[in-house]
Each structure stands twice: as structure tokens, then as C-alpha cells.
Q: What sequence folds into this?
């Protein structure tokens, strides 16, 4: 039944484009409904739903899909960030035709991401990664302004190279394993002696997904893309697209297909640590609101990869939790930046100041988002970072645990800079008559802030079950 | 084996092209050459391991995806041309820092 | 075997020419040529279905796409061409050298990359594989084609000039 | 889960504190009501929980990390004491804070402090303890900082002093965990070894600095002036003392088995003795009501440390009894000073005088608690001090002597204080002073009554509250309640008190002023020099630190500035330098990005294939 998570959004795109009068007006409501449905479906633990061949469709459709707790976390994030994006879109896209196109592309991207989350075949994973990538190209260039086109082109080039590397890896897997199914490949990789070709294939996948997830030093495209994309698109990109297309795919491939070895772990940990530190450092002096957030994204992705690199159940649970947290607080912060941008028409934080008075909601929610990102208890971000750091420590990568802590301090530092420049400090005369952002931007921000606080406060009670849920993920 | 070597060579040519050229269309051509190399690799791998049917199925999908990516990319390049009046890749270095 | 290597060398040569030739138009044609040679190679490797696709789409459609873009954009003036040629030469002269050296190097180390191969399966029809085992990919193809359609709608649509 | 009573003791004040932030400014009544209600709930909860044994383990975050809370005799008693002070001081501050700035912040911090203190008492894991302990540090900063305009400086001073000692404690916790192999407090029982000694000293520094002993005391008198008054009677006088001595008792009784003849015991006694005498000497010469009290708060902590440091049952019982007694009368004394400040507008003793007629209830409360602190029979201070004397005598006459001398000076300075503030000529400005508001009086009266009760019926608190902490086994069959058995000591105590009165009368005759009744001690030949230095803050380790840094900075280009430079310039400029360096690398050229990616790819391949 879980195939319906792919089919239903796609079918709704088809239906929306049927030449029926007035059907376009349904788009917004339908999309909201679908996303809420998806969140509900993830939260309702009906094992029958997640079985692959459940209904009558089994005779016609034969999809290789599967969902474990890792997939479910990501599926939830996809629906969450997409609905937030959807709500924020009307503030920026006024034209009704364009809005319709935006919703269609959003639905297709969601469809692709859902498939990525549930794929159990490396080539299918690649196909849907490409769907996500193409739809994000279109979203970045959606306004067809010069920065958007520039960002889109850079993304196309780097993503194209990553794609090619990934297909090369798939080709090598076909050569040595004769299949592209996760479990078959995993089996073949274990039984076969570690040949050079296997090593090469692993390297190709790692590099391809490093590029897609924007780890240093493969990250060049990421700040440009996040900065240049239209505000709702950058919420989607930063919140979920690169996380699914890069980070989740990497975690999935490592866990289900490639398995861990000392050299792979050291590569993951090193790249993660470099991203954590350099990303945070680079964020420190940015003057563009969104650009600062995008370097912060690089830094946070570093944490996820550190958690993955620990190779333990706790670390991967922490990574998955951090994916969720990152989706929550980073889309919250991008929504905040969108709110500021929509009111001020500028993203230059050097020119802002004292907006806390004029935009109290935006200010408050951004403080919550920043603190969660910096890992301040009891917000949600604290727990995932704690899990990652403890996992690193327990496995024995103590120096990396220390780096993770230092990175957290740096995170706090740049968010303090951001808060001081934007929301506190001296109000600038230029923006005296600014009002709080509209309903469509405040509502998602408030919802996300509440989610962060609630999840953070409830974490001590929920985490044990959550972590135990990851034992089969790593075992199988 | 020989196909593998030539796939790597095509890869090198494509990367060199992307790095050295100043023309947006030629960047896309570079990416195309990368994909050519990788298509060759997939077919060769399928032939060598006796999974040619699978390999062909994969290649067909890859080609479809390739076309779509190229279409979108061309759309982006045309957009850039509309703004700057040229295809010079040096025009797209505005975002930095 | 000899014929294979010859085609492959021609393929690499065509790719080189595509990258290095002066005119953008010829580059696009070179790409078509490269694709055609690749088609030949794929056909030689007993993969006729993929070969047909490669020929029709990659050797046909994509170069046409590029050529149409090139014709939509205006060509450079003569002075620009001359200036451009000099810098092109400076940038591209290393490529053949790199390729030859890399080829020799790879030929030397390639012996180390020997895979233990699983037993060959019985030959099956790729169409059956595609339709029966890889339905998800087919769905993906359909979706990505739709994405492409939206891409065209969004990116190619002439917008009212708003400045 | 959420309804676990142990968690409730932390969560109720925490949530109500947060709620207070949400209450709009206009609804002052709602805020005050919330404050009082939350404290009342805490008191009820503490009474219900009293005499229960409970443990609660937070759901695991990681295997091997057991975050647990534990309620037993000792912590239940501390919980009760905390909530008692909480409700009384809450009632008081509702009136006192009327019309002041940042009231909601103060109320919220108040409740957060209660929550964190409860958490620290309940913690059964050193990490949990540390968490609450550090939280209190932050609150301490916040609460001082919302005082008058110099408060920020004082807050920084307090933050640095307490922060440094907390750092010591952190190291101690790490060392203890290393030695014991666990961080669960109830599972740790270490015998003394060189390393364990070090761990003990580190933990002790944390504990006694919380209790406000010398040489970590110097922020308290400053805070007395700058911080809001209810803060003084809540934090340094009550909660921090309770917490510090509680932790000191835990480490010397449970975590480490402190033996009579160990060097650590002597060390503790020396710290205690020095604190008693030095702080009380400073108290003697103070001319400000609150400042004088705060030096006594330091000095009295010395008795507790001395008592626990003796490591003999009578001393420990005395120390613990003194802890609760001190918390009682010192918070009441601070409350009287607050009443005076609120009514007369100043706490400067030069400007006060003759308030006894105007504020009779306050005066009576003052008398009772001053007698208690001076150790006058039959108030509670008498009994606990006798126990401490007994213990000190058992370990050496010098400690006894110091303790008794401290008692002399305590009595002397309170005679001076009482005389200067309440008796004597009334100044013109104070003609119209009225008695304080009833809700400020109730807490004072209540505490004064408890002081008397704990004295006259000392069997009850000793048998029900204090002695069970040590347990029958370690009491070795003794029972310390009732009138002291050592008649010699009692007589000596009375002699000392009479001497103090005589001294006061002598000074009074000489100077004819209550305020200057002790000036003859102030201007004794050697003593006067010491005092001069002390008034210039010569003995303040914080100032030593500053002085030291200044001296060295003059010699070697300024370590002070150097450190500042490292923090203010070097680290940020390094970070910013790196940052702008990284920014410059991002040229916006996709080829550069691609080159990075390819280079990274080659490195990855190299690692995977050749490693």
C-alpha cells in the first residue's frame, strides 16, 4: 500500500491538469490535504499499510518498496516541510497560473522524495533522485531572475556530475553483483572478497551523495542555490530536498547496501567534521540572511554524517532524529528569512536591526529555531546532537565528539550574530514602518516552533523507543 | 575492460570540457559526454556479468532522464541568455562569498 | 575485438573533437557523431534495444535541442571569435595530452581491477525485464517526463516583459 | 510519567515560572498569585513526600547513562526546607517588589531557582546534580543583574567566582566518576587515597563556595547592596547555604568516608575556622544593615563547615542543625532589613536609629533572630552552636577557641546593629516611618516563631529531621537532643555572651553611639591596619586576582589585556579571518566548486583503494 504515497500525488497532478473547468482552484486544497494525509499515514503505525503487496494492485504493479523507521521519519519530514512550503508560497507567488505550476512541481517533487524514502533498489533510488533534482532545478529558476538561473545552472552542473558518478557506481555494482537490489548487493558485497572494484563503487556512491548533500568540500553549489532560489523554494530545498536526495540517500545506502568499514567510516567522519567546523566558520561573517542559513545547513549536515559515521545504532538514530530536527528548524529559519525578506525587500542583515519590536512573532520563532539548531536543551536539536555526540564517544571517536561540541559553540556564535543584527540591536530608521509578516508566513513558523519545543520536551520519554526502532534498520 | 578504460577517458574529456570552457552550451555538451561514457560503462558491465537485459533496461531509463535534464538545462541557459545577451559562463559568477 | 577497440578510439576521438572544435554548431554535430559511434559500440555489444534508443534520442533529439538553442542565440562577432580562439587554444591544448597519458596509465593499472564475476544468467529479453522487474523505473520515467513538461512550461514560456 | 511526584517538584515551579513570563504586565495580581500558589503547591508536595523513599529514573538517553532522582530522609528534609523558605519569601517579595522594575523576571527566576534547587537535592547522579547546579549559576547571574545599576558588575563578579569554583567541581565530578566507575551518587563510596583526596577537595571547593565560605564569599556582601533584597534572603541566606552544606555533607558522609584523623577533615576545619573569624571581623565594622548581615552569612557558614569537618557525630549533627537554623534566622534577618529598607528607604546605619517604636514587630523579630544567631539560650542557634563547640573541642582546643571567639564577635556586632538601627535617637527623616505591611510581617513572625520552637523544643527537629540523616549506626548510640550535657561549655558560652555585652557597654560609654560602639576594636593597633587593608578589599580573592593580573600586565605587556585580547580579539579575529578566508574561496565560479569536488573524489578513492 505504501506505493500509494507515490501514486496518489502523481495521479493528483494528472487529475489537476485535466481540462476541466475550475479544477485548478482545487490545487492548493488538494495538496494540503495530501500532505496532512501523509503525516497521518506515517504516524499511524499500521503494519499492513507498509506491506509491499497488500491490495489488488499487487497483480498489476510490482514495486520494490519498503519502509522502516528511517523511511518513516523522512516521509514525515517530507510532508511537514512541503506543507510549510505550500503555505508560504502565496506570499511570494501572486500570479494564479504560476501558483498552479508551483503546486504541481511541488507535488512531483514530493512524489519523487517519497519514492526515494521507500526505494529498495539502487537504480530506482537514482531515478527518483533525478526526479527530485529536475523538479528542484525548475523550482530554483522558477522566477527566471538572474540569480535563480545562475543558481540553477550551478546545481545542474554539480548535480550532473554527481549523477554520472552514481550511474558509474551502479554499473560497477551490476558488474560484481549482477543486481541492483539493496539486499542482494549487500549479500554479494559481504560474500565477495573486498575487490578493488567494490572499493571503487563505494567511493563513487559516497562522492556522488556527498555532492548531492553538500558536504565540504563538495558543497560549492549549495550556498548559491539556497540563496538564489525563491523564498518558498529555498524552504523546500534546505528543509528537505537536499536532505532526502543527499543525506538520507547516503544513510540508506550505507545502512542497507554498502555496510560499514573502517576506511568508509573515517571518510564519513572526516568529511562530517570538516563540514561542521568550516560550515559554521563560513556562516559567521555572512551578511546575507539566507546565505548564512545555507552555510549553517552545511554545518548541520556535517552532524548527520558524523552520526552516520559512528556506525552504531545510537548514531544512526541520532542522525535520523537530526534529519527531522534539521527539517524543522531550518525550514523555520528559512520561513523567518522569507518573512523578513517579504517585509523589508532585502536580505542584508547588516542593514537590519531591532526588528524584534516590529516583528515579534518572527523574532520569537527564529530564536527558538536558532537555539534548537545550536543544541540548547530542552529544544529538540539538543537531543539529536547529544545522541550523535554520545554515539561518537561510545564508539571511540572521542576527538570527533569534541569537534562536534566545538561546532555547537560556533553554531551558537553565528546565530547570536544573526539575532543581534536582525532582531535586536539598534533599530534602523529605514525600516521603521515594518509590520509583522502575514498570516501565511506566521502560521507555519508558529507551528514549527511549537513542534520543536514539544518534541524537545517530550524527547526523554520518546527517545528510547525511537532508538530501539533502529536496531532492525541496522541489522537488516 | 577496454570499455571501462574508454569510459574513464570520456569522463576525463567531459570534466575537462566543463572546467575549461567559457560557454554554457559547451558545459552541457561536457555533461552529455560524461553520460555517454557512463552509458558505455553500464552496457559493458552488463555484457561482462551476463546481465545485458538488466543493463539495457537501465540504459533506456538513463537516456529518458538525460533528455529531460538536458531540456530543463537548455531552458535555464536560454533564460541566462535572455538576461545577459550572451552564453558566456563568466557571467554567472555573481553569487559568491 | 580489434574492431571494438577501433570504434572506441574513434569514439574518444569524436568526443575530443566535440570538445575542442571552434564552432559551437560543429560541437553539437560532434556530439551527434559521438552518440552515433556509441550506438555502434552498444550494438556490437549485443544490446540492440538500448542502441536504438541511444541513436534516436541521444544522436537525434539532443543535438537538435542544442542546435536550436545555438540558432536562437546570436553568434559572436569576428573580432570576438579571433580573441576567443587564442584563449581557447590556451585552455584546451592540454586535453589530448591528458587523455593520452591517462589512457596509458589506465591500461597499465587496469589489470588490478579484476572482478570476480557471478555466474551468468540466462539471457532474457530486456523488454520483459523492464516491464516485469523494473516497473518502478517505468513509473519514474513517466513522472520525470511530466516534470520535463512542467519545466518547459515554466522555463520556456514567454513572459510579459516587466523589465 | 509526567505525574511522578519527584518530577512534579521540579516541573511545577518551572512551568509556573514560564507562565509568569506570559502574564501581561497589567495583571500584577495574577503574577503574584501564581508565585505564591506555585510555592504553596511545592510546600504541600514536600510535606506529602516527607518520610517517603522514592527513586525515579529518567528514561534512558544512552545506555550506561542513568539519570536518576532519589528521595530519602536527607533530600526530603532539604526539600521541605526549600519549599518552606520558598513560600515565606514569596509572600514577602509580593509586597517588597511592588512597583519595581523587572518584577516578572524576578518572580520567574525565583521559581526557576526553587525548581533547580529541588532538582539538585533530588539528583542521584552527579551529572544531573551538575546540570541543576550550573543552572543555578546562570540564575544567580540573572537575579543579581536585575538589581540596581551597579548590579551587572556584581553579577559578573559572582558569576566568575562561582563559575570558577563550579569548574573545580566539574573536574571533581569527572575524577570521582573515574575513580568510582559510576556517577550514581548512591552507589559511590570511596575510601581516601591521594587521587580521591584531590577529588574530594575539588568537590569541596564547589560545595563551600556555594555555601559562601571564605575565600569564595566576596560576591555576597556586594550582592547584598546591589541585588533585590528577597534575592538575598532566598539565595545566599537560604537556598545556597542549604545546597552547599547539603552537598558538603553528602561528599563527606556518603561519597567519601571522611575519617577523624584525615588531613581533609583538618583542612575543612581550618577553612571553617578561618571563615568564622575573618568574616565576623569584617562584619564588625560594617555600616550598612544588609552588608553586615551578609558578612554574617559568610561567617555562619564557617560553623557548619567546621561542624561537618570535625567528622565526629556530634560535630556533624551540630553542623547540619546549624545549617537549618542559620537558614531560618538569617533569612528572617534579611527580611527585617528589607522591611527597614522598604519603610525607611535606606539601610545605611548612619541614617537609621530609633526604629523600635515605629516598627515594634520588626524589632521583636530582629531581637529573637539576633539572639538566635548570637547563640543565646533558649533559641535554636544556641543548641546547634553548642553541638559544634563540642565537636570542635573534641578535635583540638584551637578550633573551639576560634568558634567561641566568633560567637563573641557575632554577639558584639548584633548588639551594635540592633542599637544603631532600632534604639537610639530617631532621625528626622524617619519620623513618619510606619510598621511594614502585614504580608511582609507574616514571614518574619513565622520564622522567628520557628526559631524559638527549634530552640525550646530542640528534641523535635533533632530527633525527627537531623539525626535520622546520619542514621542510628553512625550516631553510635548518642542522642544529641535536649539541653547540652557539657555544662562547662554552656557556662563558657554564657561568659562569652556577657563579655560581649560588657564590651558593648564599654564602647558605648566611650563613643556614646551605638553605631560606633565597636570602634575601639576597629582602631586597635594592628587590627586597624588590617581593617584598613580590608576596606580597600585587600583580602578579597577576586580583587587579588584582579590585582595580580594588573601587576603582571604591567610587567609583561599585560596578561590581563592579553587574555582579553585572546577572547575579544584573537579568537574572534581568527574565526573571522578563517571565515572571510573561506568566503573568498567561494568565488562563485562553478568550475572552482567542481575542482574541489573532483579533488575530494580523488582523495576518497585514494583512501578507499589504497588503505
A:
Amino acid at each position: 500500500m505504501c506505493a500509494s504515497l507515490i501514486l496518489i500525488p502523481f495521479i493528483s497532478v494528472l487529475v489537476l491538469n485535466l481540462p476541466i473547468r475550475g479544477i485548478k482552484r482545487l490545487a492548493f486544497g488538494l495538496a494540503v490535504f495530501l500532505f496532512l494525509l501523509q503525516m497521518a499515514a506515517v504516524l499511524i503505525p499500521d503494519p499492513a499499510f507498509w506491506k509491499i503487496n497488500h491490495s489488488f494492485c499487487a497483480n498489476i504493479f510490482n514495486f520494490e518498496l519498503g519502509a522502516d523507521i528511517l523511511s518513516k521519519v523522512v516521509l514525515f519530514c517530507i510532508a511537514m516541510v512541503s506543507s510549510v512550503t505550500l503555505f508560504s508560497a502565496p506570499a511570494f507567488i501572486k500570479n494564479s497560473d504560476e501558483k498552479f505550476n508551483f503546486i504541481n512541481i511541488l507535488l512531483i517533487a514530493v512524489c519523487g522524495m517519497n519514492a526515494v524514502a521507500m526505494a529498495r533498489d539502487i537504480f530506482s533510488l537514482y531515478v527518483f533522485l533525478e526526479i527530485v533534482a529536475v523538479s528542484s532545478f525548475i523550482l530554483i529558476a522558477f522566477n527566471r531572475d538572474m540569480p535563480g538561473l545562475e543558481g540553477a545552472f550551478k546545481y545542474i552542473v554539480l548535480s550532473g556530475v554527481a549523477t554520472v558518478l552514481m550511474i558509474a557506481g551502479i554499473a560497477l555494482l551490476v558488474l560484481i553483483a549482477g543486481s541492483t537490489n539493496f539486499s542482494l548487493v549487500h549479500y554479494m558485497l559481504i560474500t565477495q572478497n573486498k575487490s578493488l572494484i567494490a572499493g571503487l563503487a563505494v567511493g563513487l556512491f559516497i562522492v556522488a551523495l556527498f555532492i548531492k548533500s553538500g558536504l565540504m568540500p563538495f558543497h560549492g553549489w549549495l550556498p548559491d542555490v539556497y540563496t538564489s532560489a525563491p523564498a518558498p523554494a529555498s524552504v523546500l530545498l534546505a528543509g528537505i530536498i537536499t536532505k532526502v536526495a543527499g543525506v538520507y540517500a547516503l544513510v540508506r545506502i550505507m545502512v542497507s547496501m554498502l555496510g560499514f568499514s573502517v576506511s568508509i567510516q573515517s571518510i564519513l567522519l572526516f568529511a562530517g567534521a570538516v563540514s561542521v567546523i568550516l560550515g559554521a566558520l563560513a556562516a559567521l561573517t555572512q551578511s546575507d540572511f539566507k546565505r548564512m542559513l545555507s552555510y549553517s545547513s552545511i554545518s548541520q549536515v556535517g552532524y548527520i554524517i558524523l552520526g552516520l559515521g559512528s556506525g552504531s545504532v545510537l548514531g544512526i538514530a541520532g542522525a535520523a532524529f537530526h534529519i527531522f530536527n534539521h527539517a524543522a528548524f531550518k525550514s523555520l529559519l528559512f520561513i523567518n528569512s522569507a518573512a523578513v525578506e517579504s517585509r523589508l525587500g532585502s536580505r542584508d542583515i547588516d542593514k537590519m536591526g531591532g526588528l524584534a519590536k516590529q516583528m515579534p512573532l518572527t523574532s520569537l520563532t527564529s530564536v527558538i529555531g536558532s537555539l534548537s539548531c545550536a543544541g540548547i536543551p530542552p529544544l529538540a536539536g539538543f537531543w539529536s546532537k547529544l545522541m550523535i555526540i554520545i554515539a561518537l564517544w561510545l564508539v571511540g571517536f572521542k576527538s570527533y565528539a569534541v569537534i562536534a561540541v566545538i561546532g555547537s559553540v560556533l553554531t551558537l556564535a553565528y546565530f547570536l550574530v544573526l539575532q543581534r543584527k536582525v532582531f535586536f540591536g539598534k533599530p534602523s530608521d529605514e525600516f521603521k514602518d515594518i509590520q509583522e509578516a502575514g498570516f501565511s508566513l506566521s502560521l507555519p513558523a508558529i507551528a514549527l516552533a511549537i513542534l520543536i519545543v514539544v518534541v524537545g520536551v517530550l524527547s526523554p520519554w520518546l527517545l528510547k523507543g525511537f532508538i530501539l526502532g533502529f536496531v532492525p534498520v541496522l541489522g537488516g | 575492460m577496454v570499455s571501462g578504460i574508454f569510459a574513464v577517458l570520456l569522463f576525463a574529456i567531459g570534466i575537462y570540457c566543463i572546467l575549461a570552457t567559457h560557454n554554457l552550451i559547451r558545459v552541457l555538451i561536457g555533461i552529455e559526454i560524461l553520460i555517454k561514457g557512463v552509458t558505455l560503462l553500464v552496457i559493458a558491465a552488463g555484457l561482462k556479468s551476463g546481465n545485458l537485459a538488466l543493463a539495457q533496461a537501465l540504459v533506456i531509463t538513463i537516456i529518458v532522464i538525460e533528455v529531460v535534464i538536458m531540456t530543463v538545462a537548455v531552458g535555464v541557459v536560454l533564460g541566462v541568455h535572455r538576461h545577459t545577451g550572451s552564453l558566456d559562463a563568466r557571467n554567472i559568477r555573481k553569487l559568491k562569498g | 575485438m580489434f574492431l571494438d577497440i577501433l570504434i572506441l578510439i574513434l569514439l574518444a576521438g569524436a568526443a575530443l573533437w566535440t570538445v575542442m572544435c571552434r564552432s559551437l554548431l560543429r560541437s553539437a554535430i560532434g556530439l551527434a557523431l559521438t552518440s552515433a559511434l556509441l550506438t555502434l559500440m552498444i550494438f556490437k555489444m549485443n544490446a540492440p534495444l538500448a542502441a536504438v534508443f541511444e541513436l534516436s534520442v541521444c544522436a537525434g533529439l539532443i543535438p537538435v535541442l542544442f542546435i536550436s538553442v545555438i540558432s536562437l542565440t546570436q553568434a559572436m562577432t569576428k573580432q570576438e571569435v579571433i580573441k576567443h580562439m587564442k584563449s581557447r587554444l590556451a585552455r584546451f591544448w592540454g586535453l589530448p595530452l591528458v587523455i593520452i597519458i591517462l589512457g596509458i596509465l589506465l591500461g597499465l593499472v587496469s589489470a588490478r581491477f579484476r572482478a570476480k564475476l557471478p555466474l551468468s544468467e540466462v539471457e532474457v529479453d530486456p523488454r520483459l525485464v523492464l516491464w516485469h522487474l523494473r516497473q518502478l523505473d517505468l513509473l519514474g520515467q513517466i513522472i520525470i517526463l511530466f516534470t520535463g513538461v512542467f519545466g518547459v512550461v515554466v522555463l520556456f514560456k514567454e513572459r510579459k516583459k516587466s523589465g | 510519567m509526567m505525574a511522578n511526584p519527584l518530577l512534579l517538584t521540579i516541573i511545577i515551579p518551572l512551568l509556573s515560572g514560564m507562565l509568569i513570563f506570559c502574564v501581561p504586565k497589567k495583571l500584577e495580581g495574577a503574577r503574584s498569585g501564581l508565585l505564591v500558589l506555585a510555592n504553596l503547591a511545592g510546600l504541600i508536595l514536600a510535606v506529602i513526600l516527607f518520610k517517603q523513599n522514592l527513586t525515579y529514573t529518567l528514561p534512558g538517553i544512552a545506555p550506561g547513562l542513568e539519570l536518576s532522582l532519589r528521595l530519602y530522609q536527607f533530600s526530603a528534609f532539604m526539600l521541605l526546607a526549600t519549599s518552606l523558605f520558598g513560600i515565606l519569601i514569596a509572600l514577602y517579595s509580593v509586597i517588597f517588589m511592588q512597583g519595581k522594575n523587572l518584577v516578572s523576571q524576578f518572580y520567574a527566576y525565583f521559581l526557576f531557582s526553587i525548581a533547580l534547587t529541588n532538582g539538585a537535592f533530588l539528583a542521584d547522579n552527579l551529572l544531573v546534580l551538575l546540570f541543576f547546579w550550573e543552572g543555578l549559576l546562570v540564575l544567580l547571574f540573572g537575579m543579581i543583574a536585575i538589581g540596581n545599576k551597579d548590579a551587572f558588575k556584581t553579577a559578573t563578579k559572582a558569576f566568575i567566582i562561582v563559575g570558577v569554583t563550579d569548574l573545580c567541581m566539574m573536574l571533581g565530578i569527572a575524577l570521582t566518576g573515574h575513580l568510582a566507575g559510576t556517577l550514581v551518587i548512591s552507589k559511590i563510596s570511596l575510601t581516601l587515597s591521594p587521587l580521591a583526596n584531590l577529588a574530594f577537595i575539588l568537590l569541596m571547593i564547589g560545595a563551600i563556595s556555594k555555601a559562601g565560605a571564605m575565600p569564595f564569599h566576596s560576591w555576597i556582601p556586594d550582592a547584598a547592596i546591589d541585588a533585590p533584597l528577597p534575592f538575598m534572603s532566598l539565595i545566599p541566606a537560604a537556598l545556597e547555604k542549604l545546597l552547599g552544606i547539603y552537598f558538603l555533607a553528602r561528599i563527606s558522609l556518603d561519597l567519601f568516608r571522611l575519617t577523624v584523623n584525615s588531613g581533609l577533615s583538618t583542612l575543612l576545619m581550618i577553612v571553617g575556622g578561618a571563615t568564622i573569624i575573618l568574616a565576623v571581623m569584617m562584619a564588625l565594622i560594617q555600616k550598612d544593615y544588609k552588608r553586615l548581615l551578609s558578612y554574617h552569612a559568610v561567617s555562619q557558614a564557617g560553623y557548619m563547615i567546621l561542624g561537618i569537618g570535625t567528622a565526629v557525630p556530634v560535630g556533624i549533627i551540630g553542623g547540619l542543625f546549624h545549617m537549618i537554623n542559620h537558614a531560618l534566622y538569617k533569612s528572617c534577618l534579611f527580611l527585617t532589613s528589607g522591611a527597614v529598607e522598604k519603610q525607611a528607604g535606606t539601610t545605611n546605619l548612619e541614617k537609621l536609629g530609633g526604629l523600635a517604636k515605629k516598627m515594634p514587630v520588626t524589632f521583636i523579630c530582629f531581637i529573637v533572630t539576633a539572639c538566635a544567631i548570637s547563640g543565646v539560650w533558649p533559641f535554636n542557634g544556641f543548641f546547634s552552636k553548642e553541638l559544634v563547640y563540642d565537636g570542635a573541642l573534641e578535635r583540638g582546643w584551637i578550633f573551639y577557641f576560634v568558634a567561641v571567639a566568633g560567637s563573641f564577635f557575632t554577639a558584639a556586632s548584633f548588639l551594635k546593629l540592633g542599637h544603631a538601627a532600632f534604639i537610639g535617637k530617631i532621625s528626622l527623616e524617619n519620623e513618619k516611618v510606619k510598621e511594614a505591611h502585614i504580608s511582609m510581617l507574616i514571614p518574619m513572625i513565622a520564622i522567628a516563631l520557628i526559631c524559638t520552637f527549634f530552640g525550646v523544643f530542640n528534641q523535635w527537629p533533632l530527633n525527627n529531621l537531623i539525626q535520622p540523616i546520619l542514621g542510628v549506626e553512625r550516631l553510635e548510640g548518642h542522642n544529641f537532643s535536649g539541653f547540652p550535657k557539657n555544662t562547662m561549655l554552656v557556662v563558657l558560652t554564657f561568659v562569652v555572651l556577657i563579655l560581649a555585652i560588657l564590651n558593648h557597654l564599654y564602647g558605648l560609654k566611650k563613643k556614646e553611639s551605638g553605631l560606633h560602639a565597636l570602634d575601639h576594636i576597629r582602631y586597635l593597633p594592628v587590627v586597624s591596619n588590617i581593617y584598613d587593608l580590608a576596606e580597600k578589599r585587600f583580602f578579597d580573592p577576586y580583587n587579588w586576582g584582579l590585582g595580580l593580573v594588573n601587576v603582571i600586565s604591567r610587567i609583561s605587556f599585560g596578561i590581563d589585556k592579553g587574555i582579553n585580547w585572546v577572547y575579544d580579539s584573537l579568537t574572534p579575529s581568527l574565526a573571522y579571518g578563517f571565515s572571510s578566508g573561506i568566503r573568498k574561496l567561494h568565488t562563485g565560479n562553478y568550475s572552482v566548486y567542481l575542482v574541489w569536488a573532483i579533488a575530494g573524489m580523488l582523495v576518497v578513492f585514494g583512501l578507499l583503494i589504497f588503505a
In short: The helical segments of chain B are 2-20, 24-49, 52-84. The first helix of chain B runs from residue 2 to 20. Residues 2-89 of chain B form a domain with the Helix Hairpins fold (CATH 1.10.287.3510).
